[in-house]
Amino acid sequence: MPIYEYECELCRRRFERIQKLSDPLVTSCPNCGGSVHKMFSVPALQFKGSGFYVTDYARPAGGGASSEGAGSAPAAKPTGTTGGSHA
Question: Which residues lie closer than 8 Å to 37 by C-beta, 6 or more apart?
C-alpha cells in the first residue's frame, strides 16, 4: 500500500498515512483539525535479489589492472593493524 504525506495548512504539521488507492483522502489534521493538503514526496524503493551489490558484478577478464580496480585496491587494506610481522 502507498504511503501518503500530508501537511496541515494551519499548524504546518506533516504526517503520513498508509492508504489503499481506493481509500478516501485525509481532509483534516489529527493535531489541530485544520484542513490538509497532500504533499509530493519521493517514493521509497527497496531492491531485492541478486545484482544490487558491488560483489555481485562480474570481474574483468584477464585479471589485468583497470583504472577502477587500481583505485580500489589500496582501500581494501586494513589501516589499523596491531602487532604481527610483515611477510
Answer: 6, 7, 9
Helix, strand, or coil here: 72? helix
* Confidence at 61, pLDDT banded by 50, 70, 90: low
- Asked whether the whole model's pTM tops 0.70, one would answer no
Query: Domain map of the chain by residue range?
Result: 3-38
- Cell 604481527 sits on residue: 84
Measured CA to CA, the distance from residue 35 to residue 25 in angstroms comes to: 11
Integer Cα distance of 52 and 47 in angstroms = 7
